[in-house]
Amino acid sequence: MKPGDFEFVSQLVRERAGIVLSADKAYLVESRLAPIARKEGMASIDDVVAAIRLRRDSRMIETVVDAMTTNETFFFRDKTPFEILETNVLPELVARKRGGTLRIWCAAASTGQEPYSIAMVADAMGPRLAGTKIEILATDLSERCLEKAKAGTYTQFEVQRGLPVQMLLKHFTKAGDSWNISPTLKGQVRYRAMNLLDDFRALGRFDAIFCRNVLIYFDLPTKKRILDRMAMQVEDPGFLFLGAAETVLGVTDAFKPVSGFRGLYARDTARIGARFAA
Ligand SMILES: C[S@@+](CC[C@H](N)C(=O)[O-])C[C@H]1O[C@@H](n2cnc3c(N)ncnc32)[C@H](O)[C@@H]1O
Hints:
This protein is α/β, with parallel strands linked by helices. The chain is built from eleven helices and ten strands. Helix 5 packs across helix 6. The longest helix is centred in the N-terminal third of the chain and has 18 residues. It is globular. S-adenosylmethionine binds next to loops.
């Protein structure tokens, strides 16, 4: 990369997506931009950067920012949050709602494995939902990821990562080398592009938020701003699931850890019931 190009790209990615690229990530920028140069028929990544620096090419800006996101995900990632969802969080919310609709927001949905895992948990609840409907809104910055999520088509490798075989057989059909998720599960998840740096109040209020494995890419003030705004969007008691390497501790007081339930936080832990007695 030309001198100054790494700093330029990292500044762009930080401004547009909040993602912090430390000085030792030049190799990452090079390896993610090289395929863009090839696809665009450009001689090198210097041309990719020039298209942005000199021409402010907006399509190229979006492509580069998207390429710098890490979209790693898999079905039932870390397992425990989905067990807690089924055994504790959904029963608590169902008891509070007594019918009506529960809204769950999956705020960094990537290619769909997380929102579809939530939908599979909801399906497994069956009569325990007592007629309560579950609406899942899945958002992500990456339009490319959302397209794949909406299609609901996964490779053999992807369905072998974390998805129990009985869930695979129940909710997917095989089509050649791929697996298609059932129209029922697909119909339970709505997808929408959303940058977490932007105002998300228009999404409405939620009974639980999954914001997993995305805050790790942001600096402390950005994490705090996002969590504080999320706290305004959740109904009592304000459940939040974070990734295994993430916490609210030292970031914000807007959510507190639910003692004994790893990865689960609530805005108001005093308001959660006996199901959560540690
Ligand atoms: C590592 S994936 C996590 C996927 C899933 N939540 C999980 O835990 O398996 C992180 C996702 O966050 C998205 N992302 C990164 N920055 C974002 C931002 N500013 N706003 C919304 N999504 C963002 C990326 O596009 C990527 O799909």
